[in-house]
TrEMBL record:
Mevalonate kinase; part of the second module of ergosterol biosynthesis pathway that includes the middle steps of the pathway. The second module is carried out in the vacuole and involves the formation of farnesyl diphosphate, which is also an important intermediate in the biosynthesis of ubiquinone, dolichol, heme and prenylated proteins. GO terms for molecular function: ATP binding; mevalonate kinase activity. Residues 330-396 form the GHMP kinase C-terminal domain. One of its GO terms (biological process) is isopentenyl diphosphate biosynthetic process, mevalonate pathway. PROSITE patterns: GHMP_KINASES_ATP. GO terms for cellular component: cytosol. This is Mevalonate kinase. Keywords: ATP-binding, Cytoplasm, Kinase, Lipid biosynthesis, Lipid metabolism, Magnesium, Nucleotide-binding, Steroid biosynthesis, Steroid metabolism, Sterol biosynthesis, Sterol metabolism, Transferase. SUPFAM superfamilies: GHMP Kinase, C-terminal domain, Ribosomal protein S5 domain 2-like.
């Protein structure tokens, strides 16, 4: 297996390549990585047990800025302001020996699909000082994120790793079913693989099979990051975060690679995301379903089968549908499938009163169809509104939802997957000859709110003016 030596300078766009070449050392240059959140249209939970799910990338994204410390400073810092985490480790005190032992070491190109409990134990002492004075709930969130970070760093890096600061900001609501953890794992996996020079491209001329290999590599390690956070995961979230667009996902055997089929003709469903503002934990919801499966295996399996049939039907709608045709033609069928899928998830015990209230307001009034998305227990619902309903009724619904404390917004489905901005320099929009604007850590941290980050570094197009580059994942 070859290492292709970091990102390709030819993909940088119209900049002064000669000057840049001297500066572009992946172990020294500040760079940004970004990955999207996702919605699961059909098949959550059943997908953990080998059934098929349909998921699509959304326009909300995480951004990871990697800045380098002076060579003399042998420290790695995690700066995750969205969750209030700021922690540093001395590089030489990390448990490299455990991870590099010949019986444990996995090369970056190997497909790894399980966590090693001894390696998790080796990390534990390095998590104990994190946010020691924070409430236990916040501490758990911090330790989860740090566990994912350290497991990936120690798996992919080495004791000679450079001193760096990893700053993550995200516009994806955390713990709400939109795949914030997967998006974070994809960003971390990409950053480490890039730093060890195990990625090639992205490049506008990169052959599709080569681009796919890079995304697979990123995705493989991102899945390991997801396992660190959830204990058990199907891999659908990180797959969509890595490759973007819409996909059909299945992992029939947990020891084998997942089967991922891109859905290039996925219709532009006019979905609305409704935020219950009720926090939930994916791990807790997965454990609820696991318990149900233990207590009532046949019934639970039958429910998974029914979900699988729904996904199958949705696939046939996509295949039969003409991508150019008006989606209104079979909107009712999509809505019906969503509503049935939701009710089965409720039978599995992963709905919540706040989610059922959305159904009361949307489905029971005949305005549209709703379904929880992601793990459930709170988080987000997706609603499809019947286009024949008068505008005033939709407006009424929106204000009702707001009055009752729900958040409500539209999103674009099928967005780009993982991307890099390397170096972290934005091309000025007005003058193609100028050198661009360096993004500093201070600036990245100082922009206000989740959407300030989008405004500062936001992605516009595949190779557009913003300088962001994406590995092509089109079918
Ligand atoms: N922006 C972020 N900054 C730091 N950690 C994050 C961020 N987004 C997600 N995480 C990590 O992911 C966990 C949330 O994962 P999960 O419960 O699966 O929610 P989601 O449904 O959004 O993926 C958090 O507890 C935290 O460890
Ligand atoms: C419940 C599940 O199917 C989806 C979880 O989605 P999220 O973590 O709520 O974004 C779990 C999984 O597929 O790993």
């Amino acid at each position: 297996m070859h290492s292709t030596g970091g990102l390709d300078i030819a993909g940088l766009g119209p900049k002064d390549k000669k000057v840049r070449k001297d500066q572009l050392n992946p172990t020294l240059t500040t760079f940004l990585v970004s990955a999207p959140g996702k919605v699961i249209l059909f098949g959550e939970h059943a997908v953990v047990y080998g059934k098929t799910a349909i998921a699509a990338a959304i326009s909300l994204r995480s951004y990871l800025l990697v800045t380098h410390r002076p060579k003399s400073c042998r420290t790695i810092t995690l700066r995750f302001p969205d969750i209030g985490l700021d922690h540093s480790w001395r590089i030489d005190l990390l448990p490299w020996a455990a991870f590099s032992h010949p019986s444990k070491k996995n090369p970056y190109y190997k497909l790894v699909s399980t966590l090693d409990s001894e390696l998790l134990e080796a990390i534990k002492p390095h998590l104990k000082d994190i946010s020691a004075s924070s409430p236990s709930e916040a501490r758990k969130v911090h330790q989860n994120a740090a566990n994912c970070f350290l497991y990936l760093l120690l798996s992919l890096g080495s004791p000679s790793f450079p001193g760096c600061i990893y700053t993550l900001r995200s516009s994806i609501p955390i713990g709400a079913g939109l795949g914030s953890s997967a998006s974070m794992s994809v960003c971390l996996s990409t950053a480490f693989l890039f730093q060890i020079r195990a990625l090639s491209g992205p490049h506008p001329d990169q052959p599709l099979h080569e681009a796919r290999l890079q995304v697979e590599r990123i995705n493989n390690w991102a899945f390991i990051g997801e396992l660190c956070i959830h204990g058990n995961a199907s891999g659908v979230d990180n797959t969509v975060a890595a490759q973007g667009k819409a996909v059909l996902f299945k992992r029939p055997d947990s020891q084998k690679p997942s089967v991922v089929t891109p859905l290039p003709s996925f219709p532009r469903l006019p979905l609305i995301l409704v935020d219950t503002r009720q926090s939930k934990s994916t791990a807790v919801e997965i454990a609820k379903v696991a318990l149900l499966k233990k207590l009532a295996p046949e019934i639970t399996d039958t429910l998974f089968e029914a979900i699988d049939k729904i996904t199958e039907k949705a696939v046939s709608l996509i295949k039969e549908g003409d991508p150019g045709a008006d989606i209104k033609a079979n909107l009712h069928q999509w809505g019906l499938l969503m509503a049935i899928n939701h009710c089965i998830l409720a039978s599995l015990g992963v709905s919540h009163l706040r989610l059922e209230r959305i159904r009361e307001l949307v489905d029971h009034t005949g305005i549209g169809w709703s379904k929880l998305t992601g793990a459930g227990g709170g988080g987000f619902a997706i609603s499809l509104l019947d286009p024949s309903i008068p505008q005033e009724r939709k407006k009424e619904l929106e204000s009702r939802l707001h009055r009752e404390g729900y958040g409500c917004f539209e999103t674009t489905l099928g967005c780009n997957g993982v991307g890099v901005l390397w170096p972290a320099v934005l091309d000025p929009k007005t003058d193609g000859d100028a050198k661009g604007i360096d993004i500093t850590e201070e600036e990245f941290l100082s922009v206000a709110g989740q959407f300030g980050v989008e405004e500062l570094v936001g992605i516009q197009s595949r190779t557009g003016e913003s300088g962001w580059m994406f590995w092509a994942s089109d079918a």
